[in-house]
Design a protein that fits this description.
about 270 residues; alpha/beta; eight-stranded parallel beta barrel; 9 helices; BtpA; RibuloseP-bd_barrel
Length: about 270
């Protein structure tokens, strides 16, 4: 039995993304609408996700594009305000993801009592954001310095919009990541948010590290959830839950309900 049962309440867990709209400091932030509009939209999406029956939610600054690999203070502060105001409404376990800054994610997790974070913890990449480096040793030491040792770590080992600078196959990456870092889960992704995770790649990772939780991280939908959850221990889902399955739209509760009905039948 994996930690998913203890922390989220079920195996084959569905972690739904609650995508926060652009925040102060982001190019897309609408100062005229202000933070209250952002909070109201997050409340609407959270309500639709929870009423649809998801197992957990993860709050991310998804509309902070283009992303930073070291975020500004105003981003994490704004996220803390939003989650703090929503906290009395949250009925399921929740995590956070400050894109793409694992130190800020740990800080936010401690501020809002989040159970898990998802980040790019390891590797060096050529990416849309330029040359992207990480420092997992320092990051994990920061986790323990601030008392976040119980926060579960979801390591994204197929970064979106990026490739490893060295020639490494996915099995080698999975094996060394688990050996060196003891992650709580590995996340396997497509190229961008909403892009389907390749099932063959997902199976290679799970076969390589069978004792580690492996999550399908992007593109899981009603049409492929049977196949994906036959391999993975769970999934992180966002775009499929939105109106018409379009990334920029808000969450459609009916789509969430249909998906979760299917997942419950898979579990049985």
């Amino acid at each position: 039995m994996s930690w998913l049962k203890d922390v989220i309440g079920t195996e084959k867990a569905v972690i739904a993304m609650c995508h926060l709209r652009a925040l102060p400091g982001d190019p897309g932030f609408d100062a005229a609408k202000g933070m209250n509009w952002v909070i109201d939209r997050a409340y609407d999406d959270l309500t639709a996700l929870q009423n649809g029956g998801v197992d957990a939610v993860m709050f991310s600054n998804e509309f902070s594009m283009p992303y930073l690999t070291k975020v500004k203070a105003e981003t994490a502060v704004a996220m803390a305000r939003i989650i703090g105001q929503l906290m009395t409404e949250i009925r399921v376990p929740y995590g956070v993801n400050v894109l793409w800054d694992p130190v800020a994610s740990f800080d936010l997790a401690m501020a809002v009592d989040a159970k898990f974070i998802r980040e790019i913890f390891t590797g060096a990449y050529a990416s849309d954001f330029g040359v992207w480096n990480t420092n997992v040793g320092e990051t994990i030491r920061h986790q323990h310095r601030i008392g976040a040792g119980k926060v579960k770590t979801l390591f994204n080992i197929v970064p979106e919009a990026a490739v490893y600078m060295g020639e490494r196959d996915i099995c080698s990456i999975a094996k060394s990541t688990v050996f060196n870092n003891r992650p709580d889960a590995l996340c396997v992704s497509g190229l961008t948010a909403g892009s389907r995770t390749d099932s063959a790649t997902l199976k290679l990772v799970k076969d390589t590290v069978p004792n580690t939780v492996v999550l399908a991280n992007t593109g899981v939908c009603l049409e492929n959830v049977d196949e994906q959850l036959a391999i993975a221990d769970g999934c992180v889902t966002a775009t499929h839950f939105k109106k018409d399955g379009v990334f920029d739209n808000f969450v459609d509760g009916d789509r969430v309900s249909r998906f979760m009905d299917r997942v419950r039948s898979i579990r049985q």
